[in-house]
Automatic annotation (TrEMBL):
Family: Belongs to the NDK family.
Name this protein carries in UniProt: Nucleoside diphosphate kinase
Pfam (any one): NDK
InterPro entries in alphabetical order: NDK-like_dom, NDK-like_dom_sf, Nucleoside_diP_kinase, Nucleoside_diP_kinase_AS
Length: 127
């Protein structure tokens, strides 16, 4: 966790909010509703509920595009060394969830929806 936070600092991002939570199945089901019906879906929810999550809201210049680049490809097998997923995530086995250690919104609109879902509000400077 500390190495990821150091990378956030090096990118010059500001952490607007951060908290450690244990998400409910309902919260995760809302976040991952687009994946319902996939073979790995039940194990994804189990993985995400297996321990606490550190969630945060980042802000800064071009934060969404820069963070997506720093995270690397979703599948750790495709993520380049030097990206967070390339360095820390575990590649999935058949029908298993990807054991990614980070998430990032892919647009300002999805950021606002995810902030509302996870934090119950919004921040104006999240994109």
């Amino acid at each position: 966790m500390g190495q990821i936070l150091r990378r956030i600092e090096r990118l010059g991002f500001r952490i607007e909010q951060m908290q450690m939570i244990r998400p409910s199945r309902e919260l995760l089901d809302s976040h991952y509703q687009h994946l319902r019906g996939k073979a790995f879906y039940p194990s994804l929810l189990d993985y995400m509920m297996s321990g606490p999550l550190l969630i945060g809201i980042l802000s800064g210049s071009d934060v969404i595009a820069s963070w997506l680049t720093m995270m690397g490809e979703t599948n750790p097998k495709d993520a380049l060394p030097g990206t967070i997923r390339g360095d820390f995530a575990q590649a999935p086995e058949a029908n298993a969830p990807m054991m990614n250690c980070v998430h990032g919104s892919d647009s300002p609109d999805s950021a606002q929806l995810e902030i509302a879902l996870w934090f119950g509000g919004s921040t104006e400077d999240s994109n």
